[in-house]
Design a protein that fits this description.
Elements (H helix, E strand, L loop, with lengths): L2 E5 L3 H13 L3 E5 L2 H10 L4 E5 L1 E2 L2 E2 L1 H10 L3 E6 L4 H10 L3 E4 L5 H15 L5 E5 L3 H11 L5 E5 L2 H10 L4 E5 L7 H11 L5 E5 L4 H9 L4 E4 L4 H85 L5 H28 L7 E4 H18 L2 E6 L5 E4 L1 H18 L8 E10 L2 E8 L28 H12 L3 E6 L4 E8 L3
Parallel strand pairs: 1-2, 1-3, 3-6, 6-7, 8-9, 8-10, 10-11, 11-12, 14-16
Antiparallel strand pairs: 4-5, 13-15, 16-17, 17-19, 18-19
Helix pairs in contact: 7-8, 10-11, 10-12, 12-13, 13-14
Bound molecules: adenosine-5'-triphosphate (ATP) and magnesium ion (MG).
The site of magnesium ion has 5 residues, from helix 13.
């Protein structure tokens, strides 16, 4: 925070301002007369001087001329006078602001603080002045430089356009009559290079039509010369503030856009990973099921081939059995191929949404697990209504069902039950069919029942990916327009799929 001299003969006011500024971190000296002020200014270098105009030994205005020739201090006038002429003259001298003291000083104090803080901002804005008059250059610099602005000034339109191409400005002040070009043409060229930078047009002579044209061509404001300095300064401050905010907003928008894009990318990537993982898990379970179904025929083939070999080794005549064996092996190979086709059909991706028979879709899933269930002594009871048409992706639906049946099968794995039952049945209500898949394996702990549809949630420490139910729910909801829910019964878990019928 900067160094401030308060020149004010009322000890009370001087103290109030002083305390407030010290609280904000400013370093403060207090002068109560012209003489004291002069002494302080002579010995110190102040960033700001807060100046009362009426002092016991003279007029504060004398200090202003003095200070301007001696130092870079910025002056803020604090006065109870509401003299517009004086006020304007002081602005011409380059004071930072003119604050009228209110009765309780509160309002003026806050205003004062605002001005000081703004003037303290380190990053200065750059202004380009395009005017052919040296006097205007001097005047504008005199009032803008104390306000922390960097002013670059040129005399012709061509110089201005060249400079704008090379440097960034926060504001352009443009005289309408220039020696080489018409200001309106310069404005047009400025807009070609930078469509957003604010432009104030100055003119001494412009008629209404020209003013209209200037504003339509993209000027942000128009000021008639000779201008009122305070109005000029207010407009400069306002336009630059506004421009700075719009740039910030634009930056924020761009950042936001970038973030959204990034997150969408991340989500897509997650989806891709998920689909690859679920595909891998599916393949694992297909191979597992195929291998179960192949075991039996492969066994028969192996035994048959063994029979031929042993008979042959023993020197027995194999002519009479070879025919028999050939038939058996052939039959088993047919069986193997058929199983393979069933699986291939089942896991072929669906191309179209179609109406299909619910019974048939359930049969397809059941066919694949039957052997495994039998081997694990699980009794599968299917009791479903026939001739019910539903709509969606057929194979996907059967896969979802398979995931649910497989989970029921897994649930029995650590249970020693007399009778293991998986029951698949339907109930019909109006246009809806409810398909229930129920087991008696003890159910799902209440603690986790809300989580089982989340991706990667699994209690099967090594063997589960936790994607089975997530995928099943996704298929039922997104591709079948249905609903998959779960509840515990007194004996086990009960999954219900609600679907619309299309008979
Ligand atoms: N019928 C059921 N009885 C008891 N618990 C079940 C049943 N069905 C699902 N669960 C629980 O829900 C969890 C999530 O099932 P999900 O099918 O999503 O994954 P997973 O079976 O563990 O893994 P994956 O399906 O990849 O083999 C299971 O780990 C299990 O704890
Ligand atoms: Mg599962």
């Amino acid at each position: 925070m900067g160094k401030v001299l308060i020149v004010e003969d009322s000890r009370f006011i001087n103290k109030v301002i002083s305390n407030r500024l010290k609280k904000e971190g400013f370093q403060v000296d207090n002068a109560y007369s012209l003489q004291e002020a002069d002494d302080y200014i002579y010995q110190n270098n102040y960033d700001f001087i807060i100046l009362d105009l009426h002092l016991p030994d003279g007029e504060g205005i004398d200090i202003i001329t003095n200070v301007q020739s001696m130092s870079n201090s910025k002056i803020i006038v604090l006065s109870s006078l509401k003299d517009d002429y004086l006020r304007e003259e002081l602005f011409k001298f380059g004071i930072l602001d003119y604050i009228v003291k209110d009765r309780h000083l509160n309002y003026s104090l806050e205003e004062l603080l605002k001005i000081l803080k703004k003037a303290e901002l380190k990053d200065s804005e750059k202004i380009l002045l395009v005017d052919d008059s040296k006097v205007v250059h001097m005047q504008v610099k005199k009032v803008l430089i104390p306000r922390n602005y960097i002013v670059k000034s040129v005399y012709t339109g061509e110089q201005a356009i060249n400079l704008i191409k090379k440097e960034k400005f926060s504001l352009i002040i443009l005289d309408i009559t220039l020696p080489d070009m018409n200001g309106v043409d310069v404005l047009e060229k400025i807009r070609e290079v930078n469509s957003k930078v604010p432009v104030i047009v100055l003119s001494g002579t412009a008629d209404a039509a020209t003013v209209r044209k200037i504003l339509k061509n993209g000027a942000n404001d128009y000021i008639k010369k000779p201008f009122i300095f305070e109005e000029f300064l207010l407009k400069v401050d306002l336009l630059i503030d506004h421009y700075r905010q719009s740039l910030k907003l634009e930056e924020l928008n761009q950042e936001l856009e970038k973030k959204v894009k990034q997150q969408v990318e991340e989500l897509l990537e997650k989806d891709r990973i998920l689909s690859v993982q679920s595909r891998l898990a599916e393949m694992g379970s297909i191979i597992n099921m195929i291998s179960h179904q192949w075991k039996q025929p492969l066994n028969v083939i192996s035994v048959t081939v063994g029979r031929i070999f042993i008979n042959y080794k023993k020197g027995k005549d194999i002519d009479n059995i070879i025919n028999d064996c050939y038939k058996t092996v052939n039959l088993q190979i047919e069986n193997l191929v058929e199983t393979l086709h069933t699986f291939m059909d089942f896991f072929k991706p669906d191309k179209n949404i179609e109406k299909f028979d619910l019974y048939e879709a359930i049969r397809n899933s059941v066919k694949l697990v039957e052997t495994v269930l039998k081997k694990e002594n699980i009794n599968l009871k299917v009791n479903i209504e026939e001739n019910i048409l539903i709509k969606g992706f057929k194979n996907e639906f059967s896969q979802a069902l398979l995931n649910i049946i497989n989970n029921a099968k897994d649930a029995f794995s650590d249970k020693d039950l007399k009778e293991k039952i998986i029951k698949i049945c339907t109930t019909k209500k109006g246009n809806f069919i409810y398909l229930h898949i129920e087991d008696n394996a003890g159910g799902i702990p209440e603690k986790i029942i809300d989580k089982i549809f989340e991706p990667y949630f699994s209690t099967k420490s090594n063997s589960g990916t936790g994607l089975g139910l997530y995928i099943a729910k996704l298929i039922i909801k997104k591709h079948m327009n249905g609903k998959l829910t779960v509840e515990n019964t007194s004996e086990g878990a009960k999954f219900t799929i609600k679907l619309k019928t299309y008979n």
